[in-house]
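Lecture 7 notes: from sequence to structure.
We start with the chain below.
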Amino acid sequence: MAVVKPFKAMRFNCCSKELTEIVCPPYDIISEEERLAFIAKNEHNIIRLELPKEGENPYATAGNVLSDWLSNNVLAKDEKAGYYVYSIDFTVKGETKTVRGIVARVKIEEFSKGVVLPHEETLSKAKEDRLNLMKATNCNFSQIYCLYMQDLTIEGIVNAQTNRTPDVEITDAEGLVHRLWIIDDEDACANISKCFEDKKLYIADGHHRYETALNYRNYLRSEGKAVPGDACDDIMMFLADMGQEGLVVFPTHRIVRDLENFDAEKLLEDAKSDFDLIENIPVADAEKELETLYNNGKIAFAMYAGGETVTIMVCKTCGVCEDVMCGSAALRGLDVTVLHTMVLEKGLGIDKENMAKQINLTYTKVAEEAYNSVKEGKANCSFILNPTRVDEIRDVALAGEKMPQKSTYFYPKLITGLVMNKID
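Predicted structure tokens for the same chain:
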């Protein structure tokens, strides 16, 4: 099903020490202060291409910078097409883990074909920004993060590669170790490509960029600048085995703001028909209590409206959404779906359009930020969630459905600038 190909990656032509100063985290988690600091440290930082802000037309500026760097050999394409095994060593909750996958070019398919499957809704503003950047640069500077079902042949090839010294190794500012092994043996590459022919790919992170790539391909075709089979038919992806232990998903918490006549007591009282309420849980214990409920298979989240405690809302039945929303059991059984449908929409009147435009709802992966926004009077309340399981992501995608936007946060994020795809 999936058409996966080796490619000649565009990479920085420098030593590992300088590369550490040139790569950066994903553009959408970088503040303006951080962006400027990256550039001040090294003028060749990839952020100048991935998140341009300079000039009257920042996108055109990025295109000019890219041309200059290619002309001056700051960036260069590898001579041979290959696959790139990429691993990240990281620590979470005191435990050291490794996540790894293969960076490849993958044929873009409409979601309706069931080859590449999304799992959450997207925001239109982000897609417009990424499309403008692609038009100006003809590049993928970062990978779409995708999952696939376990394949022992692929695992064997990857294991064989990672037993040797990596071609690239750097440690980023957070202490995460990034390694890259290049596979350019033609037989090995052909074997990998063949293994993916019967695979479905599940987007873990990068929905906006994938939809943008579809729009960019269609734009080029409509302008007569491309035909089927051209390089714009492909996008760069990081393909990770869904069964590996190193996959970590963090929750994304909800912050509700700027609601008139917000009444926390009334909201909780009205919710009693659908939820059992566990009240007066100390803020410091909230995530531990939620984790226990999570491990027991319960649908639950914590509401914080100020003070020193939270109220944990536990769904009375797994099918509580059946009378309110349509969709598969996989979608209705998610904490985040129940929160959005039964509390944000039904209880607070925040509809899907409002959520998409982030009028009264914003997101954070840091629970402390969710609490502080309420304590500081910047928000009415916040909701602390458990993470979504990887198998839940798969099941929703297989059902042809999408979770609410910002339902997952895969950690760690893939670094930007290690491997890039120039669309010739």
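Points to note: Residues 4-248+411-422 form a domain with the Conserved hypothetical protein from pyrococcus furiosus pfu- 392566-001, ParB domain fold (CATH 3.90.1530.10). The chain has a mean pLDDT of 91.
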